[in-house]
Batch of 2 targets.
Target 1
Amino acid sequence: MEIILAKYAGFCFGVKRATQLAFEAAGKTSPDGTYSLGPIIHSPQVVKRLEDMGVKVLRDLSALDSGTVIIRSHGVTAAEMDEVAAKDVEVVDATCPFVKKAQEHVKELAADGYDVVVLGDYDHPEVEGLVSYATGRVHVVASAQDMAALPNMKRIGIVAQTTQSLENLRSVVSEALIKGTEIRVYNTICDATSVRQDEARTLAASVDCMVVIGGYNSANTRRLAEICHEIQANTHHIETVDQIESRWFQGVERVGVTAGASTPKWLIDEVMERISELTQDKKD
Ligand code: F3S
């Protein structure tokens, strides 16, 4: 049986950077404790490893007076950043630079008097962060239909959540042209998501079984699994190696493996090894 690992499986640039910064901070063992404001990335296994090294996940900053605080890859709100800055704590800002850029664009658009439109998922922490940087009017839309439901505006400034599709941004911008007299658009989409999805589509079409690795709380991993499942019914979304079942590989000649942008390499390696052991067992 052939096992094919997707070239872009696993960590994107921003998550890799955030994880490195978090493990470095954890390794320094601050005497006053090391904390992350929300889970550093959407991988329960990475969060658990950091917890084992003493990094505690905080829901908010109210009880914190000292120590080191790591800011997660998809950012926090402007108020939370201000709160952190006002405390006597060391800050490790692991916000992905692409997310940071999008936050700056929102701030700038609001300062220039635009009605800010953020294209994204209402309850995603990255969107909550982006919205918080607007000092004036701000609207969150998930689609062109949402944009169409907004009132007419004079000046519209558009920013997208980094994981949005270009197609969705295009349709929202088209709708905005009807709503406003002046439109300024920042294409803040990061292609890490689309690259992984395009590759998963191609891979799923060429194998008899797909294994998708990543946190169940990771939206990009869940989407990868959905895409693969639409093409290959024998698709399985797993978080850890012990969830693999040998029956998935019965009569299978080619297995494809991919992983979400927050899945660490060690988890991917474990899965690759386990699949190859199971295949070996069958031959013996
Ligand atoms: Fe950053 Fe793109 Fe990853 S925005 S966190 S590199 S998906």
Target 2
Amino acid sequence: MKRLVYLDNAATTPLHPDALQAMLPYLGDRFGNPSAAYRLGAEAGKAVEGARKKVAQALHCRPTEVVFTSGGTESINAAIKGVAEAQRLARVGNHVVTSAVEHHAVLHSCQYLERFGFEVTYVPVDRQGLVDPDAVARAVNERTVLVSVMTANNEVGVIQPVAEIAAAVRERARQIRRRIPFHTDAVQAANALDLSVDALGVDLLSLSSHKFRGPKGSGVLYIRRGVPFLSQIDGGGQERQRRAGTENVAGIVGTAVALDLAQRSREAYARHCRRLRDRLIDGVMAATPGIELNGHTEARLPNNASLAFEGADARELVRLLDEEGIACSAGAACGTQVVEPSHVLMAMGATLERAVSTLRFSLSMETSDEDIDRLLAALPGAVERARRERETAGTLTPAG
Ligand code: PLP
């Protein structure tokens, strides 16, 4: 068996050995409930509070502003629904602003709010996938209770100018004498970007541990002090009434270790990934005709290459590469005749053809030159085969 070439780090990453080591005692004999009054419980509680401090250092915020959750999806749901509902309860308004290229955790949370009478503005992006700060500010009105724009896109890796967007929203809010909380989905950002909440200018920020070599089922929600927030999970008073339920002690401890490591090594990570990613893009384009890069060339995560292989079905390419021991992902879910194109690529003005022929390669610190060599050797043949198969399969129609 060939060694697996893992190029799907945007989907998930392997647990860091240091995170695993830190977690193990809490999966073993340090199993206490952090709320318990005896020493075994206090020990677990101390571990949770130590982890909270470490996360706060990484985000440059107060420990009390850190809430541990079950992952990115929960953090995002809590941020959007928690702020929107608290603001409506206080009769502040019922309008939310977000972008068209957000993860479904954001978009579906917004759609949930729409079912309960909220209005949502989905700000479009340009062909490179960028959100215009002025367009976001223009979408804000007297009834706006929350703005949510992602830090970096999971499909095309485009990095949004979050600090500029947040500043534009603050200025607009000042003009209309409002204070409008700003949330960012930073789930894809932790390995390569600075997560200082003040530099980003954000009031809420969501993270998912398994994207930065922490454990699955664990996440972080930063909530700036004073931001209106209604808990979405009610029960015991854990996490200062913002997220009830007995803490996932091992997950929390692993999250803190992994986040600290990721934030400390982001420059080396960016250098390493960028060099290999550029080798990948240049090599693929030189070897095979008809290939295009999706998303902004500069404002993108250093580990992301989103490439459209026109005339090939991306799902078939994923299958063919998997046979060669290479793992990557398709930009769209599609059958042979019916296609569910990626909302991100479609919002960027891509054709259906481009959307369904897009592959995402996402690298990591563990990616080697040999991995890229393996991909560059396997891809031309796979593309040729997939293109031939598509030619015989006929035309595509969007799913309706
Ligand atoms: N937001 C972005 C940008 C993501 O990439 C993901 C995961 O793919 C999520 C949110 C949801 O994170 P999780 O599935 O870990 O809850």
